C-alpha cells in the first residue's frame, strides 16, 4: 500500500480544515456504514440531535480519508485504537504498518460546523478549533477560572468585550492543543502551565507543567475563517528539530489539491516558574 497524498517531507505537519458543508449530509450518511468502525457507528447513533450526529460523521469520515491519503490504507481498513483518555491512534495490522504510516501521529478537533485534523510524523501533535461567535451573553469569562494566575491577570487587564473574548479563546485553544498533544486532554490541569501571547497572533512565552521543557514545543495560531480560531501544538522531533513546513488543506479531501503554506512560528521564550508553585 502506498500513500496517495503524503505530506511532502517527514518534517512537514499537515492541517486538514473542513467545514461540515464540505461533505454533504447524504454523502456522509452513505459513507458512514462503509468507512466507520462499529464503535464509531454506535457513537454516531447515540446523538439526540441531527446536527451533532452530522458533525461527528463529517469529522470521522475526514479522519479516515486523511489517513488513507497519508498512508495508503483504505478508509474502511484503518484500525483505530483509543487511549484511556480517548485519544485515537492507528493500530498496526498483523503484517505491520506501511512505510507511510510509521511514526504517524494525528489529532482531531471540531466545533459547531467546522473540523480540523493535524497529521505529523516522528513528533506528537495536538490541535483545537473554537468559534468566537459562540460565546453568547456570558462571553468566555467562565473558562478563565481554570487558567494560570498570570493568564487571569492578563485577561483582567483587558476591556470586557471582543478583545478579551478573543484573547481568552486563544489561550483556551492553545491549552487544549498542548494537552491533546501530550495525550492528557482535560486530565492536565490548565493552571499548571501558561502562555504569553503576542497582541495579535502567536505565542511569545510558554511555561510548561512540571516534567516538560518549553523548548520541546512549537505553537501556531490560525484563522481559517472569520470568527474561527485554530491552535496547533507541535513537538520537536526526536533529534530536536522543529517542523520544516506546515501546510493547510481546505475542504473535504476527495483528491489532490495544492495546500497553503503556513508561516513557521517564531521561537518563544521559556517563562519562569511560578514562585511557590510545583511547576
UniProtKB/TrEMBL annotation:
Ranges of residues in domain 4'-phosphopantetheinyl transferase: 124-202
GO molecular function, one term: holo-[acyl-carrier-protein] synthase activity
Alphabetical UniProt keywords: Plasmid, Transferase
GO biological process terms, semicolon-separated: lysine biosynthetic process via aminoadipic acid
The keyword Transferase appears for this protein: yes
Transmembrane parts of this sequence: none
GO cellular component, one term: cytosol
Family recorded in the similarity comment: Belongs to the P-Pant transferase superfamily. Gsp/Sfp/HetI/AcpT family.
Protein name, per record: 4'-phosphopantetheinyl transferase superfamily protein
Amino acid at each position: 500500500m502506498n500513500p496517495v497524498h503524503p505530506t511532502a517531507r517527514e518534517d512537514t505537519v499537515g492541517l486538514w480544515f473542513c467545514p461540515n458543508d464540505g461533505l454533504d449530509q447524504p454523502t456522509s450518511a452513505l459513507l458512514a456504514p462503509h468507512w466507520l468502525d462499529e464503535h464509531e457507528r454506535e457513537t454516531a447513533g447515540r446523538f439526540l440531535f441531527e446536527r451533532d450526529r452530522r458533525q461527528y460523521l463529517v469529522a470521522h469520515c475526514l479522519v479516515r480519508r486523511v489517513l488513507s491519503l497519508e498512508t495508503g490504507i483504505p478508509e474502511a481498513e484503518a484500525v483505530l485504537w483509543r487511549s484511556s483518555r480517548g485519544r485515537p491512534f492507528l493500530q498496526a495490522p498483523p503484517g505491520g504498518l506501511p512505510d507511510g504510516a510509521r511514526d504517524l501521529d494525528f489529532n482531531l478537533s471540531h466545533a459547531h460546523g467546522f473540523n480540523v485534523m493535524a497529521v505529523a510524523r516522528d513528533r506528537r501533535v495536538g490541535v483545537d478549533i473554537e468559534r468566537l461567535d459562540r460565546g453568547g451573553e456570558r462571553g468566555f469569562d467562565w473558562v478563565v477560572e481554570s487558567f494560570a494566575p498570570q493568564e487571569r491577570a492578563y485577561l483582567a487587564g483587558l476591556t470586557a468585550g471582543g478583545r478579551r473574548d478573543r484573547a481568552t479563546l486563544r489561550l483556551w485553544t492553545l491549552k487544549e492543543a498542548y494537552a491533546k498533544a501530550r495525550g492528557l486532554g482535560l486530565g492536565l490541569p490548565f493552571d499548571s502551565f501558561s502562555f504569553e501571547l503576542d497582541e495579535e497572533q502567536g505565542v511569545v512565552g510558554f511555561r510548561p507543567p512540571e516534567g516538560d521543557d518549553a523548548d520541546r514545543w512549537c505553537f501556531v495560531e490560525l484563522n481559517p475563517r472569520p470568527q474561527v480560531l485554530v491552535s496547533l501544538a507541535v513537538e520537536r522531533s526526536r533529534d530536536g528539530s522543529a517542523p520544516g513546513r506546515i501546510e493547510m488543506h481546505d475542504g473535504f479531501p476527495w483528491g489532490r489539491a495544492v495546500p497553503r503554506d503556513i508561516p513557521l512560528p517564531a521561537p518563544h521564550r521559556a517563562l519562569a516558574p511560578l514562585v511557590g508553585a510545583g511547576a
